[in-house]
Amino acid sequence: MKATIDWTGDASFRATSGSGHAIQMDGPPDHGGKDLGPRPMEMMLMGLGGCSSFDVMSILQKSRQDVTACHAELEAERADAVPAVFTRIHLHFVVTGRKLKENLVKRAVSLSAEKYCSASIMLEKAGVEITHSHEIREAP
User: Where does the record place Basic and acidic residues bias (predicted)?
Assistant: First the structure.
């Protein structure tokens, strides 16, 4: 896996993945940025959410669950001192579908957290406390 980061002026950088996808990262105005994109630490948090959501959906699809939507809400706390690392992250999944089985949704979230989500497991090994919760909503 590869990626490149190119400075685009002020506190702004363009990140390009090995697969050719790009995103603009930028700092806040009080740090020389123009607020043109997410901050690098926000990218890490979004990466964690994407990694875990990918796992949850993959597991639920393999379990033949009729999922119509999967929404993840992430909330992180950071240390007050530099480096302002993540100290706690909570992921809350809202899974919508038809006749979803509680035990299978719970299992998908647990398997992602404990076995499959590389980002989550890596951050936990670095000392970040990561918690998960979920709710199920019936699709109309």
Answer: 28-37
Burial classification of residue 36, based on how many CB atoms lie within 10 Å of its CB (0-12 exposed, 13-18 middle, 19 or more buried): middle
Token couple for 84 = 């302002």
Please determine, for residue 39, whether its predicted confidence score (pLDDT) is greater than 90: yes
| pLDDT at 6 > cutoff 90 | no
